[in-house]
Amino acid sequence: MFLLITFYSSVTVARFGGMSQQIKAEKISTPESGYLYLGTTDSYPIIDYDGNHEASGRPDFLYGPDTGPRVVEFYAPWCPHCKKMRPHYIAYAQRVTKLVNETAQGQEIKFYAISCVVHSMICKDYKIAGYPRIFAFLPGQQTPAIDLFPKMPHPFELMDKLGLYVDEDTKLRNNYVPESESLADRVVSLMIRGEMSHPRSKRDTFHDAVLSFNFSMRNLFTTHGPLPDDASKTLHQWLSFLRKAIPRQLVEIHRVIDSVLKDFDSAIKSEENMLAILDQFPKPLQSEWSKSCTKGQSEMGYTCGLWELFHIASIGIVEWNSNTREDRSKAVSAVDAGNVLRDFIAHFFGCDECRTNFLKAFDSCELDRCNRLRPTMITRDWNEFPLWLFEMHNAVNLRLMREQANEEKRTLTEEDERRTQWPTRLECPGCYNNTVASFIKEAVLQHLRIEYWPDDQITQEYRKRLGETLDGRQPHIIFSAIELFCGLLALALLLGYLLRKSLLRRRRNLNLKAN
To answer: Where is the ERV/ALR sulfhydryl oxidase domain positioned along the sequence (predicted)?
Structure first.
């Protein structure tokens, strides 16, 4: 369960005229839609550009000639690492601001943030292809001088590089050692699953996948002009793959794919051309990701829905291959499916650290990928693609939980690690080998089809085998609820009986005393 909590805090963030200024964050509010810092009171001294003051849509702190030293973060609010970076960027900005005011009086460094979802043209100007990106700018300069992510320099090191003078004695008194500190090491994604808080339905799964597909198509271009040749090739392969792998019931995806591929050469020439094609179709009636995806944090919907899209496609390509047995030339091997997915993430997934981690795992053959994803055209090998992706997703969740535990200086228990694995025993009791506490591959594959493919006779048969009901709850869970109710009822009756017996005994004793 997620709770909305209002925090109250008081922090020293700056010093003016030798006196500390106390900033009281009476309410840490939620940011405005499309932003991480704007509209909040806990983000001082970050200035999240909202575009209200420059008619040109080009902020003076990036494009103007009369600028001082400043630091700018380019982010996307859907990016989990940007979300996790937020408190660290604020803390770093506060630390630098405090030291500047204490040791370099009369000088200043300003800290800004740019939402690339809201201000995409600015981010294209600066060729922001991944998030987050943090740059420092010299006074009067419009091009970045220092890349601050993932290694954030010590405040004194930053001040030196931006031309703010601080004498060596002051540095020594502040225990300055010129060694960069890594912020990226402390950035942990919030993508760990939480389905128990927000139960998921198949309708939610398909809805979230459609929204994330549409969002990805509207954010393909990270620079002005056409897509580069390698990105264009990857996009064509990705859409051709999805055309085969996505169930026809998801018409919202298929009509976009068909239209873009039909006019592909024009679509890749500019973002305007691509959007003109996408805008032909009505927007979905429900434009928000489901609660089962967002877990109460709307900006997390995109990455969650993208995983759903990947899983749907992984099951779909097995279905496609099963229906092309008479013409093997139309089939897609497991290794080709994996490579298409890998290249899409490499070119079009904007979260830098997420992308790097996935590509590292893929290219280093983690989970025995190189032996499991084969070019052969037999059913057993097709099935390895959805199974490998399922294991990869669980491995990502486990890694993130371990990173978070390390950040919090605590040790994970076996139960903690079990919680990261999906499906749980409650969701799919038939998926587990009870003797060795491991997954049964065939059962997991059936469960994946139940979760990520439209209902049909095969799905119904799989549900019977795995002991699952149509709405996703297992019979033993229903029986457990009934047993719990009966147990509570029996307990209430027992307590009532004991209370009545106690009252009768007390009344009898009073009668004896009266006599």
So the answer is: 295-416
HEC states along 186-237? Answer: HCCCCCCCCCCCCCCCHHHHHHHHHHHHHHHHCCCCCCCCCCCHHHHHHHHH
Residues 6+ apart with CB under 8 A from 242: 213, 253, 257, 313
Tell me, yes or no, whether 449 lies in a domain.
no
Q: Which of 132, 158, 155 is nearest to 145 (CA)?
A: 158
User: What is the end-to-end Cα distance of the chain in Å, rounded?
Assistant: 59
User: How many domains are contained in the chain?
Assistant: 3
**Averaged over 78-107, what is the pLDDT?**
88
Backbone angles phi, psi at 413, to 5 degrees: -90, 170
Q: What is the spatial distance between Cα 413 and Cα 293, in angstroms, rounded to a whole number?
A: 26
For residues 376 and 506, membership in a common domain is answered with no
> Is the Cα dihedral 422, 427, 432, 436 positive or negative?
positive
* Helices 441-452, 457-466: crossing angle, 10 deg rounding: 130
Is residue 433 situated within a structural domain? Answer: no
User: Are 180 and 212 in a shared domain?
Assistant: no
Report phi then psi at 69, rounded to 5. Answer: -65, 135
Q: Which of 70-74, 119-123, 370-374, 421-425 has the lowest mean pLDDT?
A: 421-425
Which pLDDT belongs to residue 514? Answer: 55
CATH at 13: 3.40.30.10
CA angle 291, 258, 331 (to 5 degrees): 90
Residues 18 and 142 in one domain: yes
What order of strands is seen across the sheet that includes strand 46-48? 46-48, 110-115, 70-75, 133-137, 146-147
User: Where does 251-324 have alpha helices with state H?
Assistant: 251-262, 264-267, 271-278, 291-294, 301-322
Same structural domain, 337 and 244? yes
* Same structural domain, 180 and 215: no
- pLDDT tens digits for 247-278? 999 999 999 999 999 999 999 999 999 999 99
Residues 134 and 220 in one domain: no
As a whole number of angstroms, the distance between CA 259 and CA 256 comes to 5
What 8-state DSSP symbol labels residue 131?
Answer: B
In the predicted structure, residue 375 carries a pLDDT above the cut 50: yes
Q: Are 182 and 207 members of one domain?
A: no
Q: pLDDT tens, 474-511?
A: 444 444 444 455 556 666 666 666 666 666 666 665 55
- The boundaries of the domain holding residue 72 are 9-186
pTM of the prediction? 0.64
